Amino acid sequence: MHTKSIARIIGFFSFGFSLILFLPILVALIYGEQEVEHFLIAIGVSAIIGQLFVLLGQGAVHELNNRDGFLIVVIFWFGLSAIASLPFMLSAHLGIVDALFEAVSAFTTTGATVISGLDDLPKSFLFYRQLLQWLGGMGMIVLAIAVLPMLGIGGMQLYRAEAPGPFKDEKLTPRLSHTARYLWVFYVGMTLANALAYWAAGMTPFDAIVHSFSTVSTGGFSTHDASLGYFQSATIESIAVLFMILGAINFSVHFIVWRKRNPLYYFQNIEVRIFLLVILSAVLIVAVILKDTGEYAGYTSSLHNGLFEVVSVITSTGFGTVDFSHWPSFLPVLLIFISFIGGCGGSTAGGMKVIRVILLTQQGFREVRQLIHPRALLPIRVGDRVIPVQTTQGVWGFFAIYVVSFVILMLLIMSTGLDQVSAFSAIATSMNNLGPGLGEVANSFATVSNSGKLIAAFAMLLGRLEVFTVLVLLTPEFWRE
User: CA torsion sign, 169 to 174 to 180 to 183?
Assistant: First the structure.
């Protein structure tokens, strides 16, 4: 393990985060708010920590290996969440645990909260809260790979440790730094388009910008307690649905569509097709039940509310226009279950990812066919592509560890006093980076105990880093030379 190289890179990351914190200071100056000193304190702490690590890493010449990459990513996400909690303590006057929970929720794009009275909070603080989601959506390390030439060596190890989905070695271009830049170009461009659309639909420029942060990142934070329901606008909700879906589609597909200048490629990609089919199926089920149970007067309102909530949940965004936890029949549980599917691999969405669900389903059917034809060679295919055995084994391993981790964390949070429904949805919404849950955590985690919030925060990081990146550090083999 190359300690100096690790320290040097962590130092650059921390120092880079301190520079980003000047953005909410600019917002505070524009609106004449008194939050400047709070962000200056956070900048100072982040810069000092960064400088210390850079000094510790002086003289580092080693190329990173896989273990270094895992350790850097975990230290960065856990450490940056702690630093990012400072403005929550200073501006929102939260306790240490609540501030850490809110920072982790923002940075992992989960969207769960312990804060109420958002409409009355300073705009610079609200901007900062949304900005964290936007940075966490694409990933700060992907940004660093794009802009820091010193990560040209060993950057792939960091990319593998942070990138979502089973195909972590794939790049859009031969050079990883170019891939990272393309990803961020598309991410920024999509955010700008979303902000302009919100503005044209009637949002103020401030609300349009910050809601575009949390829409494209599929984070779900809002500047209002009523979330997007505050605006009472079908147009705004339709724009949100479009950009939530775009954010939950693999960014490599966006890249190919742009390169070929052919939007029809979205429908040629099997993962995108299955993703859209799952959305369509869930929307139809929800709309029919909402209408038949009399929850809404007609099919139009049932379809509208069903579409918004299904898309919000499956993309792990968590925006709300209604409280789906009070919907009739099995609908609340259905929505929590589809959050496990999540969006496509290589997107900003949470969950297990559509491509993994496709591979798991195909493997299940293959085992049935193998019983009929025990000597046959039956490869797993996605479209015209034969999936390597190593990848399919990795998907099964991920699924097994995901389920075991979920069960353990659910039992732990139940031991803090949550009932079964609340505990199940609390861990589901945390690991799937969703936000809203059922029962006690339907709208907020404010009433959850401090130990419960810490468990949920750990589950958020575990889900965002796709389990293995965190758990590999807990194995004795990782620390052996």
Answer: negative
